[in-house]
Design a protein that fits this description.
2 strands, 78% helix, 21 helices, single chain, mainly alpha, 1% strand
């Protein structure tokens, strides 16, 4: 059966069938031709995987991010980032990264972060001396920080699939997200110095920073509301997502007055589209994943990897390499659902902290969001910049390398992912 599963999946994907449809068809074909299981299992597993209370947080965070972007909250975060960076070489490129880090704390989505910040910053960065390909490459990698700094839709999925605390995963993503942002900013600065770009922006002024902070404080309070409610035990991730939607609407509609009621139907439609895609992927992988588990494929792969070596460092590197490779051709959601059952026993065997393992998984697959051929962040950034993916491939390399450095630090230095959860939620 295992051979049928993988051969059929490869053929369907090569034929251009969407991955969610391909996985359902593959599972059905394997059941019909090679097993004693009932075909009803496909529908049962698809529904059971999608019928989850924590997954309700996904449409809510998507809607909150859309409201914040439409209501002027992202524009205020860009102004704050610009005031903080000031007059340095590559300063505007660093502003783009910092703005993505701020917006990540209120969106939870790669596509939303890339679109909201990239539409403003890609043309601006390109005017400061960076090629349009480099500006696009920087933006798509910075946009992937949207699913590392909390709130994060993939961390919700990781919590559901891996049986982990979503609150601890949220906190575990803070330091790695900051590391990734700092690595990208440093890379942009080095490129600007090597290529002798002129300094950009104005000199850092305490008055300008204070003014920008004051105007963006309501936007920044969003992450305090979300993470604080979860950490304090006052709300689950789903309930915190409801708070985020209510807060975003109050600030954008009543205080900033940049959101109108006529904007809401479009935001709701966009939310439904994104949610439909994500939940379909989650449900579609369930029958395929169940069959793999029933045939003990994850256990056999894990045993094979453990049989190669008992060295924890080598096993971590092997997991990272596989995650980066898979992320280039498989979207994050199905990759997460398929690979967690394989790698989780290995992480347990080498006594890797569960939260560090979860953050490593999401961060590694987040890098795949910026790589061809299926990187959603790359697609969004190229669409905004009106540039071909081939023109971005080479300028993208140093920014991907910066992200990999942050990934390796997170993988081999456990406090990067574990310190905040251990300090605030394991008492």
């Amino acid at each position: 059966m295992v051979e049928v599963l993988f051969i059929a999946l490869a053929v369907l994907l090569a034929a251009g069938v969407p991955i969610s449809v391909a996985m359902v068809l593959t599972a059905a074909l394997a059941i019909v031709t090679c097993s004693h299981y009932s075909l009803d299992l496909v529908a049962q597993k698809l529904f059971a995987q999608s019928d989850s209370w924590p997954l309700m947080a996904i449409p809510l965070f998507v809607l909150a991010g859309g409201i914040m972007s439409k209501g002027g909250m992202s524009a205020r975060l860009i102004r704050l980032a610009s005031a903080l960076v000031g007059e340095v070489r590559g300063g505007l490129a660093m502003v783009a990264v910092l703005a993505c880090m701020f917006f990540a704390s209120i969106s939870g989505s790669t596509a939303a972060t890339t679109a909201a910040i990239g539409s403003v910053m890609i043309p601006a960065v390109a005017r400061t001396g960076f090629s349009r390909g480099a500006a696009t490459g920087l933006q798509c990698t910075a946009g992937s920080i949207g699913i590392i700094i909390p709130p994060s839709i993939p961390f919700i999925l990781m919590g559901v699939v891996g049986g982990m605390s979503i609150g601890e995963l949220f906190l575990g993503g803070v330091v790695p997200g900051i590391l990734a942002g700092l690595a990208l900013m440093a890379t942009a600065h080095v490129i600007a110095r090597v290529q002798r770009h002129p300094p950009s922006g104005a000199r850092v002024s305490l008055r300008a920073v204070a003014a920008a902070f004051w105007h963006s404080i309501l936007s920044l309070l969003t992450v305090v509301l979300i993470v604080g409610a979860i950490m304090g035990g006052w709300a689950t991730a789903t309930e915190a997502a409801i708070l985020a939607v209510v807060w975003a609407f109050i600030v954008s509609f009543f205080i900033y007055k940049e959101l109108t009621l006529s904007d809401m139907p479009g935001l709701l439609v966009d939310t439904a589209k994104v949610t439909g895609i994500v939940v379909l992927c989650i449900g579609a992988t369930a029958p395929f994943g169940w069959l793999l588990t029933a045939e003990q494929v994850p256990a056999r792969i894990a045993a094979g990897m453990l049989g190669l070596t008992a060295n924890a460092a080598v096993l971590k590197l092997l997991m990272v390499f596989i995650l980066l490779a898979v992320g280039t051709f498989l979207d994050l959601t199905p990759a997460l659902i398929l690979l967690v059952p394989i790698f989780q026993p290995i992480a347990q065997q080498i006594q890797m902290d569960p939260i560090q393992f979860g953050v490593m998984m999401v961060l590694a697959l987040a890098i795949g969001q910026s790589t061809p051929p299926v990187g959603i962040s790359l697609f969004v950034a190229c669409s905004i910049a009106r540039i071909r993916i081939g023109d971005v491939a080479l300028p993208l390399v140093p920014f991907l390398a910066a992200m990999v450095v942050a990934l390796l630090i997170t993988t081999f230095w456990s406090p990067a992912a574990v310190w905040l959860p251990a300090t605030f939620m394991r008492q």
